[in-house]
Fold this protein.
Amino acid sequence: MGGVNYVTRRRAALQPEEPDEESWEELVPPPPSCPLAGTAAGSWGGREAPGAMLGKGAGGSGAKPAKPSFVSYVSPEEIHIKEPIEKELNLHLLPGELLLCEANTVLKCVQEDGSNRGTYGKLICTNFKIAFLGDESASDDNEPEFKNMIIGENDITLHCIDHIYGVYDEKKKSLSGQLKKYPEKLIIYCKDLRVFHFCLRYTKEEEVKRIVSGIVHHSQTPKLLKRLFLFSYATAAPTNTDIQNQTVMFDAIKDWREELERTKGNMKYKVLSANEAYKVSEKLPLYFVVPMSLSEESILQYQGRGIPIWCWSCHNGASLLKMSAFPKEQEDSTSQMHKIFLDGVYKTINKPPYEVLKTDDLSSSLPSLQDIQAAYTRFKQLFLIDNSTDFWDTDVKWFSLLESTNWLEIVRRCLKKAIEVVEYLEGQNTNILLVEENASDLCCVISSLVQVMMDSHYRTKFGFQSLIQKEWVMGGHCFLDRCNHLRQNDKEEAPVFLLFLDCVWQLVQQYPPAFEFTETYLTVLSDSLYIPIFSTFFFNSQHQKDANMPGDGHNAQSSHFRFLTVWDWSVQFEPKAQVLLNNPLYVEKPKLDKSQRKTTRFKHQRQLSLPLTQTKSSPKRGFFREETDHFIKNILGKRISKLINSSDELHNNFTEFYDSWHCKPIDFHGLLLPHIEGPGIKVWAQRYLRWIPEAQLLGGGTVATATKILDMIEEVQSLQKKMDEKHSRTVPQGREALPMLRNSARLSSLFPFALLQRHSLKPVLPTSTWKDLEDEDDLAKRDDEFVDLSEVI
Amino acid sequence: MEHITTPKVENVKLLDRYTNRKPANGTLYLTATHLIYVDASAEVRKETWILHHHIATVEKLPLTTSGCPLLIHCKNFRVAHFVIGHERDCHEVYTSLLKLSQPVKPEELYAFSYNPKMPKDNREIGWKLIDLKVDYQRMGIPNDFWEITDANKDYEVCNTYPPEIVVPKAANKATVLGSSKFRSRGRIPVLSYLYKENNAAICRCSQPLSGFSARCLEDEQMLQAIRQANPGSPFMYVVDTRPKLNAMANRAAGKGYENEDNYDNIRFKFIGIENIHVMRSSLQKLLEVCETKSPSMSDFLTGLENSGWLRHIKAVMDAGVFLAKAVKEEKASVLVHCSDGWDRTAQVCSLASLLLDPFYRTFKGLMVLIEKEWIAMGHKFSHRCGHLDGDLKEVSPVFTQFTECVWQLMQQFPCAFEFNERFLLEIHDHVYSCQFGNFLGTCHREREALKIFEKTHSLWPFLLQKKQEFRNPLYKGFTAYKELKPNTLPFSFQFWCGMYNRFDKGMHPKQCVLDHLLNCMSQKMKLEDSATDLENKLPFLDGPLPDEVCSLSKIVNASVESSKTPMLNTPQDYESEPPALLTNGAIVEEVDIMPSRDQKNKENFVNHHDLPDLHSTMEVIESDAKKEKLQYQ
């Protein structure tokens, strides 16, 4: 019963009966006489069978007495009398989740050695996950405190499966398509780097057939978008009223306007609503920001290609832009036209009030998507370990193995490119235009990295989430294709978003106090890529999402239909677990004023006080720089900008900028540049090593530091609390009421926080540090479990 | 002084190894003990001090347009690249430095001229600070099985051992002397560490003179006595830390390793740690990687692997873990040796003790450990560190490796050590600095002959004085960890930037977490202090409530306690600089940043809390607290 928690249990209890037959080819049609089909069923008709079936669950009228939640396929004589109870305890299905097949007496092997040690249990496959229900879960006591409420320890979502191998006579074969022979052992490699070994030797042949072909079919064959579990879930899940979320989603025009205002980009850039109803392009979001001087016609003319789209503005007015390149045309005239058009665009931007523009074609300066995919494939092999013997074998040449994957070098190159861009923006007051074929892969990586480095707002949790919304989700990163969620085209697969997270992790690892979130947050976020109940990472574009929203107006029930966003962390984690996502050492930016104007001014001054290349540069260069605008504008046009930035000087500027920054004391709320020398770039141990028992370190590791820090902060807090009490005690009248107040204070999480608020103007964003004492108390108790979390799991 | 022909050279450039910035321009001074470079181009006076003893090599590079380059490599891994305007000046500095950095006579070492102007008594007290007998007592020795003997008081057993050694009670004088004839250089098996809980012991010695077939009854009795001193175990391990091939080669020279058939109930093991020559060249390769200008990821990783350095560190660690496991889990005693039993054996024994006993992870403990396993047992510091002009083949980073092992452990267990990285670096610096007497010479006998106890000072009291800056704010206390079980998988070993790239600004992971924590600790203290103060005020306003009395006294106690072990009150700037080490002037750099940084910390604090009314109270109390602390210091 280990994996059970209250919420999922309740959901499981809501499940209606399962269909009597399973079918691999299509999802099961609802039993014609399903008595439980509720309101949603009517609206959905036969189109979304599972959803219809579970409509009742969504209705929330599931106060039915406990009942086996599915019909077992084992022969009746095998059904043990107590089994129903056990099942009821163990199997929790999400709304919209259907049990497809199962197998009993499966042995989940312990990886340590070749032996068949392990736990017996039932292996099931649903339209959402593969789950192993083992006896081990019987021990209720050691239930981990930090646990995912959606994905249990032995659950693998279908999208999280990377590869499935069967073992036939000690030989490992990849499983796919129609199977003729069934293996005695199933090895599942997961995208979150877990490895499961399921021994089927003691399972009935019939069940083996069913479960193996079921798992292979549901996880390996191409799927239609509409068949994503996402839709079943969204249909069936109880619709909560909108959860207040401070993450800016950038799906409304106001979000963009506010962002323009916040970055003071509104002088030179405007939000366009030309793409409403996707008239301009299906790749672009409904609203996007372009230079003020750009005409709407030209945008329509080329369907959004060749248009510089604004990402972010620097305090000095220089902006970060991105642009999807024109396809290489065969026809001369077309490409000529493109060229003229682009020249026109550049000229517009090069005119005042804009700064000089520099374009950077990312497809030529960074590794290709294929390179990234190949590197990651090699890299993850280092951590997908069948047994510990393999692992020890890596011993001798660990570093050369690491080197041969090239992954760290790619991470380094991305960080380096981002620093280069930062240097242009900050050091040279130059606009930067990132160009890429679709402006939705490496453009996203680089532009988001630049923003994380330059804008401390994006180092807060909500800021970071907003950034991902802005650059990735709205920016049209093809999550569906890049993660290969539908298994339709392996060639499109590339871990671009993971690459970004890895780069951010490098920054977090180098400057922990600068980030409001922890590495655990990043790890958990990377896992969420494969959980198909959140829409965030399951569409290629906003258009695709909107186009696939059911009920185009004529369906009254469509209001019922709501996708979850991954940013609602309460879906996955209980509050006390969520605390671990917050960095206790993070200190809010020392600024309490909400007014935007002041924000930027403050930032402006602060950053100017930083030593910049500009101020330090030799007089000659400075002179030339000042003259640049003039030259370009009047005499030479844009060509000179390329001349000025000859690669040699570029390199010098870069190193000078980089070095001078690193020589100065660091401001955690200012510009942040990562170390990119060899020793600076590291392996994201938490993500990659967390499932390897050999990597475990009892009582050690970064977690030990983290818990100690929490202890200390708690100490400071409790002392402060004590002082606050004492302090208020000196107020004469309050004294009588105090004992009570104090007692209730212990219980009320509001007490210290409210008190702090009274004394200080805390910023809107809640701080983890001073949040509430109750959570902190829990944390103290959790020390041990916390160790488990990242070192053991 | 006679070596210095040009005490001052102007217009000297100092190139930064990593950055392409304009080189600093300034003046170079040569003093009797230091090379001092004063940067005139910086807005604030910036001094670089390099101790002559720290200089490993001086090279004069070919003349360039800007002047004559002088490249200095230091033993603490600093690389200074000067460019001197005139060739003649450069040559004079070069020849002076060659002589100054390689003294011929021990009397020329800095320790004999270093005078911190303290009373004579203090020097004596300083030398008595670490008493090994106390440590043996801590292990419960003497007891039924072990005794401290002065069998070696005239160095008749072994001239590289200290006069007092710990041997099994069952081993009589004849056994001891007999055994000493059979061990290389007379280094008989003696106790290194006794694990009190199960009587398993770690002992150390040198290789036996067994050749292909020689035996020695007394030596066999000696081992039997050690095994029997641990009645709980039917066998004991004999660990040869050398690779098997090396050990076999030694047999031809009449040395070698124990024959399992000749000794009762021993289990013999090889642990392949390479010899000093392999280690020396490995470090050389590692330093080459460190010196590569902007290496790619691939350069760095392949370079790191090809140097083999971390593999050697891992081998030492593996051996330490093996010993600790044998003692703790198998309850078996272990006898460790290598060739002479003063390099690998010292590394392995001290590491095992560190893993087993939390005491050695405190300030005092590490000092005791170094004093016991390294200094007393005759690790040849003078030769291994090249203190004097001598055979370069004898130089090897054996102690550096031990230091790094401790650091690797600190990386894995950040809360288990009372001290921080800077403490290790400071010790490492002084092993080479010859500023204190502890590491001079090669063994106890030689140090006596040098009269270091009368003529020089001990390092340990000097370090204890500066304890505050070496404190690990994450330390969870003595009882939090018992034995450590480190992970020895290859990825658990990290490149130690703080050691090998220590003087390369910009290469450092900024230790901001540490900084923050020191902040937290000082905050905690301030809050405690003001709590006390408010408590004290309370009685004047109104009588304390009954339930308050106990908590009041508790808080007072807490605050008294915290003032007894004062924590860092003014966090230093560890971010951009290695801290100013050796306040007496060995390395002092850019002290100018500190005030501004301090200021910032204070601001931070204000923002963090924004409790204006509390704040004013605190400030008053803070000054009181400081006064109080001064008294304790």
